[in-house]
Amino acid sequence: MSKRNQNAKFQIKDGQLIISIGLEGLKRSIETDTNLVVTDDVKAAFSVKGVVSSEEENGRTPFHSMLADAAYQAYGDGEEGFEELTD
Fold this sequence. Notes:
It is a single chain. The protein is of the alpha+beta class. It contains three helices and two strands. The chain has helices at residues 23-33, 41-52, 62-76; strands at 9-13, 16-20. A two-stranded antiparallel sheet has the order 1-2. The longest helix is centred in the last third of the chain and has 15 residues, at 62-76.
């Protein structure tokens, strides 16, 4: 399978969380989960990248919010690696 066709892939490698998806995989994901048709996968990828990496005044991005939401869900599901701060 070429990297272009790769579905979302999540790895922990060399001290990094690596999230990757091929452009065809991104297209499939968008078309499956929305009523949009991707007419140019490269332009669509740049557009999505722009949105998920757009910084607010405090430097936070929608991607940061997604990670925080995933952490709260994992914690709520009883997953390890988290501890809630108390006042």
